């Protein structure tokens, strides 16, 4: 999770980021390899906000879960950029029968197996892969949860990944993106090799992926010094 807010930038991602796409991804992988496999590590030193984050996510997600027309079934969920399984443990496993995790850092996934405890038996797959390369199984997931990780994808790779996620949804399935949002343009973070996009750019990428935003909220009660965080439900 990148929390640093460097202010405003009107730069487009393509203008500053992709001098070397390979380097962009390699630097991010190296950054996370040096981060301790703890909740505080996953949250960039802001471990204290974990409960606020989870509670906000749960209220958001429960609007869509249930039986009947338009409702998302509590079958199988995918946790993207899962880290040690913080979201899987506290949000997804309590609501879904089974969960898969995908993360680029093997050490985090290894830690998840112990961190998740007894309930971790309901995790079916641990995928070690960057999302730019990850191919989710078609028609498998009721919810695909993507939190604090889209900044590690280029615009094109994010669009392509969202397209693959769309194909991976079951009927009435849902993609949820929860992430930092810039006030204007694209703000790069050289420390963890990521970017923060504004909402207008994010909406354009979502539309190009053939998806619609069916609901959107801003996470409340986070510290003022970090980015605003928005939650988007996509179908």
UniProtKB/TrEMBL annotation:
Q: Where in the cell is it found?
A: Nucleus
Annotated EC:
2.1.1.244
Reactions mediated catalytically:
N-terminal L-alanyl-L-prolyl-L-lysyl-[protein] + 3 S-adenosyl-L-methionine = N-terminal N,N,N-trimethyl-L-alanyl-L-prolyl-L-lysyl-[protein] + 3 S-adenosyl-L-homocysteine + 3 H(+); N-terminal L-prolyl-L-prolyl-L-lysyl-[protein] + 2 S-adenosyl-L-methionine = N-terminal N,N-dimethyl-L-prolyl-L-prolyl-L-lysyl-[protein] + 2 S-adenosyl-L-homocysteine + 2 H(+); N-terminal L-seryl-L-prolyl-L-lysyl-[protein] + 3 S-adenosyl-L-methionine = N-terminal N,N,N-trimethyl-L-seryl-L-prolyl-L-lysyl-[protein] + 3 S-adenosyl-L-homocysteine + 3 H(+)
GO CC annotation: what is one?
cytoplasm
InterPro entries, per database record: MeTrfase_NTM1, SAM-dependent_MTases_sf
Q: Does the keyword S-adenosyl-L-methionine apply?
A: yes
In Pfam terms, one family for this protein is: Methyltransf_PK
Q: What class of enzyme is it?
A: transferase
Output the CDD domains linked to this UniProt entry.
AdoMet_MTases (cd02440)
Q: Which GO terms describe its biological process?
A: methylation
The alphabetized UniProt keywords are: Methyltransferase, Nucleus, S-adenosyl-L-methionine, Transferase
Q: Which family does it belong to?
A: Belongs to the methyltransferase superfamily. NTM1 family.
Protein's name according to its UniProt entry: protein N-terminal methyltransferase
């Amino acid at each position: 999770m990148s929390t640093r807010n460097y202010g405003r930038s009107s730069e487009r991602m393509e203008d500053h980021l992709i001098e070397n796409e390979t380097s962009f991804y390699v630097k991010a992988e190296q950054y996370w390899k040096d981060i301790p496999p703890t909740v505080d590590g996953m949250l960039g030193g802001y471990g204290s906000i974990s409960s606020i984050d989870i509670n906000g996510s749960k209220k958001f997600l429960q609007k869509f879960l249930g039986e009947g027309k338009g409702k998302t079934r509590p079958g199988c969920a995918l946790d993207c950029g899962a880290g040690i399984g913080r979201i899987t443990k506290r949000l997804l496993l309590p609501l879904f029968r089974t969960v898969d995790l995908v993360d680029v850092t093997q050490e985090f996934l290894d830690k998840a197996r112990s961190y998740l405890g007894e309930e971790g038996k309901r995790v079916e797959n641990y995928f070690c892969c960057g999302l730019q390369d990850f191919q989710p199984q078609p028609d498998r997931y009721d919810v695909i949860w993507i939190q604090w990780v889209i900044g590690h994808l280029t615009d094109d790779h994010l669009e392509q990944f969202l397209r693959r996620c769309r194909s991976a949804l079951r009927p009435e399935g849902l993609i949820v993106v929860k992430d930092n949002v810039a006030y204007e343009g694209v703000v790069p973070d050289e420390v963890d090799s990521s970017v923060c996009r504004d909402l207008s750019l994010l909406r354009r990428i979502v539309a190009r992926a053939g998806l619609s935003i069916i609901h959107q909220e801003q996470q409340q009660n986070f510290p003022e010094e970090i980015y605003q965080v928005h939650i988007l439900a996509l179908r």
